[in-house]
Amino acid sequence: MTDTAAAPRVHPQRKLDHLVYVLRANPVTLLAFVMFALIVLSAIFGPALIPYDPLATNAARALQPPSWDHWFGTDNVGRDVFSRVIVATRLDLSISVAAVALSFVVGSILGSAAGYWGGWIDNILNRILDTIMAFPLFVLAMGIVAALGNTIENIIYATAIINVPFYARLVRAEVNIRRDAGFVRAAKLAGNSDARVLAMHIFPNALPPMMVQVSLNLGWAILNAAGLSFIGLGVRPPTPEWGIMVAEGANFIVSGEWWMALFPGLWLMMAVFTFNLLGDGLRDLVDPRKRT
Amino acid sequence: MQTHTYPRLRAVLLRVAQAIPVVIGVVIISFLLTRALPGDPAVFFAGAAADEASIAEIRVALGLDKPLIQQFFIYVGDLLQGDLGQSISSGQPVASDLANRLPASLELTLTALVLSCGIAIPLGILAATRPGSWVDHLCRVLVTAGVSLPTFFTGIVLIYVFYYLLGIAPSPIGRLDFIYLDPDRVTGFYLIDAALMGDWETWIGAAKQLVLPAITLALFTLAPIARMTRAAMLTALSSDFIRTARAAGLSNRKILYGYAFRNALLPVITTLGMVFSFALGANVLVEKVFAWPGIGSYAVEALVVSDYAAVQGFVLAMALLFVALNLAIDLLYTVIDPRIGFAAK
Amino acid sequence: MLSVQDLAVSFKTRRGDVAAVRGISFDLAKGEILGVVGESGSGKSVTSYALMRILDAGGAITAGDITYSGLDLRRAAERDMRDIRGREISMIFQNPRAALNPIRKVGHQIEDVLRQHGRATRYDARAQAISALEAVRINDAEARYDAYPFELSGGMCQRIVCAIALACDPRLLIADEPTTGLDITTQKAVMDLMRDLIRAREMSSILITHDLGLAAQYCDRIVVMKDGVIVEQGDPVQIFAQPQHAYTRKLVDATPRAGESIRSLLPPEDRRDLVDHMVQDAPLLDVRNLVKTYQGKSGPVHAVRDISFVIKQGQSVGLVGESGCGKSTTSEILVRLMDATDGEILFDGDDIAAIPAKGFAKNPRRSDIQMVFQDATDSLNPRHTARHTIGEPLRQLGKLKGPALTARIEELATLVGLPLPLLDRFPHQLSGGQKARVGIARAIALEPRFLILDEPTAALDVSIQAVVLNLLVDLRAKLGMSYLFVSHDLHVVRLLCDHVIVMKDGQIIEQGPASVVMNNPQDAYTKALLAAAPKPPARRQSA
Questions:
Q1: Which residue of chain C has the CA closest to A8?
Q2: Nearest Cα residue to B163 out of A256, A262, A66, A64
Q3: Which residues in chain B have their CB less than 8 angstroms from residue A250's CB?
Q4: Class of domain C282-356+483-532 as given by CATH
């Protein structure tokens, strides 16, 4: 065994090969990718394709069960449930994407600084994160939206705030374990400044676990936003939104009109399920050993 | 033994002391939340039907004419006396409203957690010891599906199936059907109070009401616990010390429970803190769906009528409850892990 | 006593079955200590797990027989195997701290084994466990009974693992790299203890190790494994004097020993003439009264206590000591990644200790002082290709770009013997030796005048260590660098360095010319270090 023994051959499209390999080995992840594409497409083109105006009421056709005309039935004021469910995709998705993006950026900056320099920055950040985490997170989001006012922006801010600790802690841990790694010390010897070492050498190595977290968090952010509107915070009727639609449908479930709550609920579940599957799939892609 | 007691005790005290800044932080945030109301908080606190005079009155009563720092100390002073303000919807002090309704929430949450731990931990262990088997696959599906379920939706589906379609569940309203009398209040937990009275009919009535909401909440918390148990067991089982134990000829039972599980328990207990956070949040939604008279539905009702003192009181109460739970978890951890209290190297 | 016939073991992986052991046969006599020697991936550990039938999930014995005292171990029921493990055959592992249950008192862990095999009852278990601790020469066994593994040193943990293994008086002890990761004096203590116990109890033993010298010192017979097959077996003296197989010859050559040149580590056909390096009298680096104290959890820690030494231009200085002696702290300060608490570092007469480590990246001296790191894997950014890594200092400090950069990178790769096609690979696609070459190329990219080598071969197999050490010697002659070679391995230091500094507890306890310190040590600690190093038997007379 000499040290010039051949290592595996390098293909230019190695990463793509690996992706194809993982997808083939795990059809569930492939399914998640397909569902993700469907969700994104319906968020973009949905409003243009739906059969009915999601806000148009029609008292004559109220509370009709699913049929060829109304795939998901109609609600108590005669609006088409299918159209409303599809239109809501864009709103729910935008809320969660905006919230997750915000917390990703803020959490990365705070976590990197705390993990790399440690000391008082780390102490203060930890105190703040501890305080945020000391609240049951959904309850804190409720409090924030109640205090800041009942708007969609505030739902985004509240969801972002309760997500920040996850990113900040993850990045902090990832940066911290690499702070004294050989390649980081070598980068300093090569004349890189601290900020450059952090941005160019350490942070990119923390990205793969971050992407897994992003995917899992997107699902959680959708659940959170829908939960808030379910209890009457944030999005207001008659705007189509999954949480509100389930809340409205809940009043009719005890009298047997199941479709009003079931379809938006199922759609919501599918969306969250997709992001969770995607997160698990990404985890496999990033590190097959961490499969749980 | 002598050498162990002292640092362990110090670790416990240190952990209790660490809760203090967190509590202070929680109080500051909830104060800021009450003062961050857009526009004039007095208008909000006065409610929709208030006129100029009563708004001004409330402003003085709340101390809103004073500087922020002074307001904070008044707020803290009130808190120390257990004063969270008046609820406009119930007309009662918020603190007493919360105290009355807290046992209902705790009974629901704790039942759900016991239920989910009881299922999730054995499931996680089974999945970890038989990787690739049907238990393992079931665990994976449950775990991913479980975290994807919106609690309020699960609750509604369960009501539809078990109440409307099958008719085996009682009407999903409150803790006890009208035909029963509330048991005498000792702990506020109906199951315990009814048992103390020896009134088993009421006990069964209360248990029936509890089943669906508890299952709803348990389904939501099942996933993170099962996932963590499985992962922690897999890590523990692949550790070097398990190989030592196998090479020493220890029985499978001893290896699995005496060695692997006790080590795997540590990360699982840590996860429990996060699970509590989820459970307390989801609790609000479940209470609304099942019209459960706990503090969650109290807060939701208060939100509808813009009863902000009640909402903020609820947020603070939940946070303090959660801090206490986390403290309990960490102390439990200290008992199990001998390494706590020694400088980690 | 133990007979292994045509044993084959394979593992199921994503890419199909991989044969780890491919038909090996050996016998073990009663009272014999057998050494199984091989480099990483040779299948030596897997063999031992197969004997105990404790292969990891996915691993299975695919062919062959294992017979122990007439018992067929391959086909024995799991229940019977459990009785045999710990009572008839015991095993101890590398990384003793991880081998113990971290949250169970060590005394209880011994009791578990005793009670499992019916050697103790609830009433006398404690007394028996304490006597098992005493048997492995643990002082104050009574108090250690209540200790948790994290409270004990690595050497102490290995004694506990021995106590667990020997508690039920097994007749065969398998030791899998029992001293890897332990300091050399601890290694000697643990090995001596094991040998004494094995002899006293008339047990047989299998010692699995990568260190041919260690095996030669403690074993009656040696089996050399490579790629899952046995290439040679025989008694140690014979293996060293007349190795039959080419691979054994290479291993014997690569095992460092006293009184030879560094070229003799290589196979004879690779031994080019050694070009002497020039040592000048002018000091390059003059370290005066260096002190490093930092705040620990329980009071200040004195990592380096007032050390002074000089490195002349072109000189190679070895810095030797066991873990915790302050050698790594010293090298971190010299390379200006860490600030000293007190003292001066005169580099060409300028005090570089006065420049804070934080701002040293912008100092013109930065390119004069470079370092090769201990773990080649850890020191390469996993997301950068070899080309990117080697080019990093050239871009940042050398301000090279475009074709000039490419040309210089390729020149460096050629200099360190890294084939050019490998430049576009990522670290995980390179072997250990290749990664070491990338790290060296990066360190010498700016032609530093002073290079710190922090155990550059500690993570490498001996045959690769031999190649890398020779590369370093050639580079020194070619580029005229001064080296500070930090190591725990005295033999290696002797081969490479002109001057040796021995550190202990943050202080220099002895320094002087390498030949003087090695052949005629003055300090008791230096003597102990030298005595603890394994002494391989004489080697064949090479042509």
A1: C429
A2: A256
A3: 152, 156, 289
A4: alpha beta
